TrEMBL record:
Family: Belongs to the GMC oxidoreductase family.
Binding site for FAD: 273
Needed cofactors: FAD
Organism: Bombyx mandarina (Wild silk moth)
Keywords on record: FAD, Flavoprotein
Positions of the Glucose-methanol-choline oxidoreductase N-terminal domain: 309-323
Gene from which this protein is expressed: LOC114249835
GO terms assigned for molecular function: flavin adenine dinucleotide binding; oxidoreductase activity, acting on CH-OH group of donors
Pfam families, A to Z: GMC_oxred_C, GMC_oxred_N
Name of protein: Glucose dehydrogenase [FAD, quinone]-like
Amino acid sequence: MVWQPINLDQACPGSTNLTACSSFGYVYLDLLVRLFGQTSGKRRPPETEEEREFDFIVVGAGSAGCVVANRLSAIGNWKVLLLEAGDEQPLVTTVPSLAISLLQSSVDWAYQTEPNGKSCLARPGQRCSWPRGKTMGGSSSINSLAYVRGNELDYDTWAANGNTGWSYKEVLPYFIKSEKNLNIAGLNWEYHGVGGEQYVSRYPYVDRPSIMMTEAFNERGVPIGDFNGENQLSTMQSQTFSCGGQRVSTNRAFIEPVRDRRHNLLVRTNAEVHKILINENKQAYGVVYKRNCKWHTAYAKKEVIISAGAINSPKLLMLSGIGPKYHLDELGIEVVKDLAVGENLHDHVTFNGIIVALPNATSTKVSNDQLLKELFAYKLSRRKRGPLAANGPTNSIAFIRTEAGLPAPDVQYQVDSVTWQEYIRQPTLYESLTIFPSAFYNALLPRTMNLVPKSRGKLLLNPKDPRGAPLLYANYFDDPTDLIPLVKGVKFLLTLENTKAFKRLGAYFVKKPLKACKNYTWGTDDYIVCLARSYTTSTYHPVGTCKMGPKWDKKAVVDPQLRVYGVSGLRVIDSSIMPCAPRGNTNAPSIMIGERGVAFVLNYWLKKYS
């Protein structure tokens, strides 16, 4: 498999002068493919005839699925089949600064939301992009790499709502179990682990503007500290899912090290599952999947475990007859179990448009020739230490409370990078063509995220093509109070301009209204609301579509041990089970869910596990 980047011929209109659409954009992407387009793992031996019977079938080799497959295959007499719809993980995914270059490429499902008239208003068709990983490692192979767990209150609330076994005290050991923290010095050992498979570390390279953001937040009263430890109300350069300046996805952490050593683990890529087989006793006993244009059937003697993520897990359940009866009836799908699959969809809503410009002396922008040299230097170096070994300013993260009485943070800041003169001319087109490394820029794009959104959407099968991309109703700002933390958060953000940190680097806010909001005065509440509604963007944290809950919760799809209600031998173990999104990025919590969920499986079948 050779990685395929975004198709510039299709993405670039003839009327733009963005650098991404210039001849250099084509040269750059061609070089990326040549240097990093191949797969990152070992060359696989020729495959033998497809085996058909296993103890466990795991659908989806993403953030949770790789953990599940690793733990199950550790039991030598259990045969485990891991099915991934995407291909092997390409090398380009391992370069931290190229994370944004992966969007709309061959490793991205490239989903889009449906319009609701309240958000994404300046985007084509009023639709927001929802990237999801389509390769070994899933979204852990294409995300922004930040290691963030959420707040203690998140998990205690899950437990208080009837999800026994999911309090913070009970899930913390599962965060620690898989963590291999390479920078444990200065961190509280009670909250971190060093013996797991998943590498967690700081980047070997941090640029000056990134440090400026952390120092500015600190000047404004946000303490520097570990937001994965005792107090989330803090700021720091986030730790990442990396080692030695390279991304470590769950595929590289949990599957690649054991894939050739455990003969009881069979991994199949390019294998998209279209149906869960369920017998007349409502017991799951296998799956039907398509691979290399051929249909295959695999059988599970013990359990089928769905770890396809917050979009593809509910889609698969509904294709298999598990979902809202009214919707399945509309599509002529035989109903196996009437459950609220696809409901409770939500995401940490944010938006773009607040720009912090940097003068030439502190800008990290380089010439085209230097950019190409940096690509060669990273590729050829054994020790990855330059700008590409980090993700630009993206790990400049802070958490605040916008009201003093709140029990936990309601706003998170995370910072993107841009060339602001190009961005301000065509913001939506610029954001759809983020092909260049995040390390080189002349402006910061700090994003204010609402950590506690009240708006809820839903996912439905597409009646025109039920097996194709589902209909995603993100429903951002359906509850208008979701705008309040964003406005307050931006007001706090704007005060950073007066800090010594900003002044030392000559940083300043670009106070020119963007096109969709030109009728508003820059910096006012109305302008901020206009930006939020017009330039809405996802934080890529969709969750909740196979909600975990007790029996009395009418919206629950799985019980607290992640078993699908009304269907035996079937579990969902991924971010779709989250009743409510944790306060922060969702990759670390998804890995924890993999650990916690598979522990329930092991406990059931082994009758002993701790």
